[in-house]
């Protein structure tokens, strides 16, 4: 994703790094717990990201990580700790980790362990924004990218599975409609605001600008719709 170029300390100057993995001198036995470092990791993304793209990557990670390994309650605790640490509330972040019995041998959330010894790795982009983040486009530079094709194309029936209910529903759209348009249609059908929806197919996040036909969704296969229950972030 990117390389770590340094760490901004809240109490001292930056500590330089050269890779995407944050390390700290070994101060004892393997997996000995450390207090969470009061530091902000500085890193540069290989591909510059907008705030919206970074938020989407974070949401995708936190929504899918529990499905692969570890316990959901630990992932939830790590997410809450990451949010607190990014806001420089390290005392709250430490309290969250202690309450969930999570150890951080290197003092960073990039590598954690629960009380059963299960390893949890949080990517750097979930802990701090890259130094080369770019501003969101105002919308006037490329209006055609966001406009719907005049011809919606062939009619298709998408099979959607909502994370809130785990039930399937059918949504009829055009092959040349964008995913953003489909989210609007789902909003009209189920009352779920588009900003709360994240669509996944084949393990990949479907971007708002992607056309349905470009997603190459096999008829009858399920598109997972992860519905956020969090308050809408400020624009």
TrEMBL record:
Residue segments, region Disordered: 1-32
Biased composition (Polar residues): 18-32
UniProt cross-references to Pfam families, sorted A to Z: UBD (PF16455), ubiquitin (PF00240)
Matches recorded under SUPFAM superfamilies: Ubiquitin-like
Domain Ubiquitin-like: 156-228
Protein origin, superkingdom: Eukaryota
Name of the protein this chain belongs to: Ubiquitin domain-containing protein 2
The encoding gene: LOC106121913
CDD domains associated with the record: Ubl_UBTD
